[in-house]
Specification:
Blueprint lengths: L1 H10 L3 E7 L15 E7 L9 H8 L2 E5 L15 E7 L4 E7 L11 E5 L21 H23 L3 H26 L13 H4 L2 H8 L7 H26 L5 H14 L24 H11 L9 H16 L8 E3 L1 H7 L6 E3 H22 L3
Parallel strand pairs: 2-5
Antiparallel strand pairs: 1-2, 1-6, 3-4, 4-5, 7-8
Length: 381
């Protein structure tokens, strides 16, 4: 592909220089088959190439997916006179091709001159350390810590209010500060002679194994209990790394800010926030009645996944009886066996539809009510 890119520039008299940047030009980047070709063709006139997909396809092959930022309104283009083709071809190659009439290579950025017909690129001096993590000033360090701890109040409020999109998006925003501190921590570990990678892609490569596992645990699903756990894990990790960075440069870590926001979060999104009735179904009974009983148990667990605690025990009992009737045709009675056709169809076999009235009235319902009452008592209800 690189040969084709270079040959295309050589054969087209309108193109007088070609440069490759990005990861393929960075001697420190990990090489693999997924790397893009970040290419700039320098021309006197961009107009003949402007949105000229026919030319692009003729030179490089059938296009599978294409984006042209200069033609978009969703994300306003740079409007710097250049035209960009972001292209994945049917053979799997991706080329990010910029057609430009201006020399706009940032000073020192890794770049490989593929072609220079007029000697315009003789002054390019790439630096191998261009993408290395840069040490923070004391002001940057303090600002990062303050932004991290301050913005966590929004995460806590989102959890307490049961505003899932807001809470998770705010934590994604806070993650920018966690990532910044992670970059500096990696810089300290390697004497600022490595790159943490775009969006932390090199974290697994450079962080100690246990610390990377901790970082990975800061990602969560939509369960509020898991969200709280990921937030506190992120706080522990940030604290550890920030103290290490502060020690390396002789900066002061604002421990009061840390402790006060942690206390605020524990109060605001405490154990009660985001707990649901489904948790009482977590531990299954030691013994079932009939083969269909576990499937009804699972259905009930899903049904109460969004019902917040505390919850009235009478309402739970009534809900279980009604759910039983939905599948069995009537509420359970002692000494009777029931048949849930839906379970039999889903799990194949007549016996998988069997429900025991004795199991639900004598074992399952009393067990669940006992668990619910314990949780309600724990939550002060």
């Amino acid at each position: 592909m690189l040969e084709l890119i270079t040959r295309t520039a050589e054969e087209d008299e309108r193109i007088f220089a070609a440069v490759m940047s990005g990861s393929r030009a960075d001697v420190h980047a990990v090489k693999d088959v997924y790397q893009d070709y970040d290419i700039v063709y320098y021309v006197k006139d961009v107009a003949p190439f402007w949105n000229n997909t026919a030319w692009l396809e003729k030179k490089f092959g059938k296009i599978a997916v294409l984006q042209t930022p200069e033609t978009m309104t969703l994300m306003p283009p740079d409007n710097n006179g250049a035209f960009v083709f972001l292209t994945i071809f049917e053979d799997g190659n991706r080329i990010d091709l910029t057609i430009s009439d201006k020399l706009d290579i940032p000073e020192g950025e890794p770049a490989v001159v593929l072609l220079d017909k007029v000697g315009m690129l003789s002054d390019i001096r790439p630096r191998n350390d261009y993408w290395f993590v840069k040490p923070p000033t004391e002001k940057l360090f303090r600002d990062c810590c303050n932004e991290f701890w301050w913005c966590l109040n929004n995460v806590a409020k989102g959890v307490a209010r049961d505003e899932l999109p807001y809470a998770t998006e705010m934590f994604h925003y806070v993650r920018d500060m966690l990532n910044q501190m992670t970059d500096w921590y990696i810089g300290v570990m390697y004497d600022f002679k490595v790159s943490a990678g775009k969006m932390g892609k090199n974290y697994k490569r450079y962080l100690p194994e246990e610390m990377y596992r901790q970082y990975a645990a800061t990602y969560s699903d939509s369960d509020y209990g898991h969200i709280r756990a990921s937030v506190y894990t992120g706080c522990d990790l940030f604290r550890t790394m920030a103290k290490s960075v502060a020690e390396r440069f002789g900066y002061e870590y604002n421990l009061a800010e840390d402790e006060n926001m942690t206390a605020y979060m524990r109060k605001t999104m405490g154990r009660q926030a985001g707990r649901f009735v489904s948790e009482i179904f977590g531990e299954k009974p030691a013994q079932w009645g009939l083969r269909g009983d576990p499937f009804l148990w699972e259905r009930l667990q899903k049904r109460y996944a969004d019902v917040r605690l505390p919850y009235p025990s009478k309402a739970l009992k009534l809900g279980i009886l009604q759910t039983f009737a939905e599948f069995a045709g009537e509420r359970p009675e002692r000494g009777k066996i029931y048949y849930a056709e839906e379970f039999a169809k889903e799990h194949v076999g007549m016996s998988t539809g069997g429900l025991s009235g004795d199991f639900w009235l004598n074992t399952a319902i009393p067990l669940l009510l006992e668990r619910l009452n314990a949780v309600n008592s724990e939550l002060g209800e």
